[in-house]
Design brief:
The chain has about 60 residues and is an all-alpha fold. About 45% of the residues lie in helices and about 0% in strands. The longest helix is centred in the C-terminal third of the chain and has 12 residues, at about 45-55. The protein is globular. The two termini are about 15 Å apart.
């Protein structure tokens, strides 16, 4: 089907990813479905930390 298995295979380098973690986090928090999350989240708290930790996991398939 031609579906990539990772952001790197999609052509997004770690450098580009890290340069955009803040924006990705802000967009995630602003998404309408976030309002139904039972836990309070913030860009500075959980969301950006999750994305930063994900990049450390080798062979991460997203």
């Amino acid at each position: 089907m031609g579906i990539v298995n990772s952001l790197q295979e999609f052509g997004i380098s770690e450098k580009i990813f890290m340069e955009n973690v803040q924006l990705i986090s802000e967009k995630s928090v602003a998404h309408p479905c976030t309002g139904t999350n039972p836990r309070e989240i913030s860009v500075e708290g959980r969301i950006s930390n999750i994305y930063k930790k994900l990049k450390r996991i080798k062979n991460l398939k997203v």
